[in-house]
Amino acid sequence: MSKNHNKPHFIAMSGSYGCIPDNVVAFEKRTNAIKHIIDIFELPVYGRKADHLRKTGYVDLGGDFGADYAEIVRCTCENIEIHNDEVA
């Protein structure tokens, strides 16, 4: 019996605490997901928030950027397209 090996992909999401994320985009590479979050929130590329995002996959935005948090989640589902309308 063969195991189903799905290619990992990375979901960049952000939103308000306690709510369903209002921004969800899937990427084939983690680095692209990180760049997406840095770009949409205009975070300083080498600032503390961007560094924390790169290290942990999560950043507390504190509501200062139009969202409370942003995070990147690794997923291995069969269909990357279910996470968003276009794959980046």
Structural class: alpha+beta
Tally the beta strands: 4
Which strand order do you get reading across the main beta sheet? 2-1-4-3
Oligomeric grouping of the chains: single chain
Determine the number of helices (DSSP H or I, runs of at least 4 residues): 2
Which word captures the global form? globular
CA radius of gyration: 14 Å
- Percent helix among the residues? 10-25%
Number of domains: 1
Low-confidence stretches: none
Short description:
The chain is an alpha+beta fold and 88 residues long. The protein has helices at 30-40, 48-56; strands at 9-15, 23-27, 58-60, 69-75.
Provide a descriptive summary of the structure in words.
With 88 residues, the protein is an alpha+beta fold. It has one domain. The protein is built from 2 helices and 4 strands. Strand 1 (9-15) and strand 2 form a beta hairpin. The mean pLDDT is 88.
Which short descriptors sum up this protein?
23% helix; 88 residues; alpha+beta; single chain; globular
SSE blueprint:
Elements: E1 9-15, E2 23-27, H1 30-40, H2 48-56, E3 58-60, E4 69-75
Antiparallel strand pairs: 1-2, 1-4, 3-4
